[in-house]
# Entry
Amino acid sequence: MAAMTPTPTRNTVEALEAAAAGKPAATPARSPRASRPRPRVWRGAVLLLAGAYFLVPLVASFVFTVHVPGQGVTFAAYTELLAADGFTESLLLSLGLAAATIALSLLLAVPALIGVRIGSPRLRPVVEVMCMLPLVVPPIALVTGITTVLRWGPEHLSRTPLYQTFLAVQDERFPVVLVLAYTVLALPFVYRSLDAGLRAVDVPTLVEAARSCGASWPYVVLRVLLPNLRASLAGAAFLTLALVLGEFTIASLLGFRPFAVWIVSISGAQARMSVAVSILSLLITWLLLLVLSRAGTTPTAATGVAPTSRKES
# Structure
């Protein structure tokens, strides 16, 4: 049985005639319905629900702080904040702890991850497990271990120079023990942020190019690698700042009074002021996080290593 050949359509005939005459073939007109973009209703609905989920409680809290039954609208809860006992001290203490924690965590994580990335890639799983362990240990177990270690000072080290060190790390004006504890808690987030940044950069190639041009190791790290990790560093600082400003358990059990502990301490006696302080702390946190995010995305001048001079023959 002979094979059936398909009958050429009108569009096919017109295309063949146009090709024979040397003219471009006419493209079929699209229907108006096909050219219209699809309405993205679901995306708008999801954004609206997410915005309502975050904004409605904040608006309700703000109304609670400014509306007093029988008195109307008053901003006394906000005007009394600066004069409140312990407000400025606790806020400055939390900001200082956050800055010290960010500096210490980056100082520990950046050289370690760069060294593993360049020299010992096989150690990466070991470093990852060690950095992720704080997610497994509950904060209450961590603070119990810290308390046990701090008891060694009065009990066993009272006649050694280390006794003064144990007292210094527990100074209420700036408790270094909180910086150490917060660094441990922030280590998983710092590791994830920096590891993602190092994966996106060809670190061995950059290091070899810089070293072949005569750059020293400090120059390579500070002027070649860190500018390429600017977004990752800002993300790590972003997460660490949010963690330190909102941490309550460890500071409360160790007997210190940073900003989160101070808010809880005044919540029983002055409810409106505590809610006003919470709203203010959210605004301060968002402002600082916005500054860090802008610092991580602002373009800077490209840094590199000057090529070695060559004598012209």
The longest strand covers residues 67-68. Residues 300-313 have pLDDT under 50 and may be disordered. DSSP finds 16 helices and two strands in the chain. The radius of gyration is 31 Å.
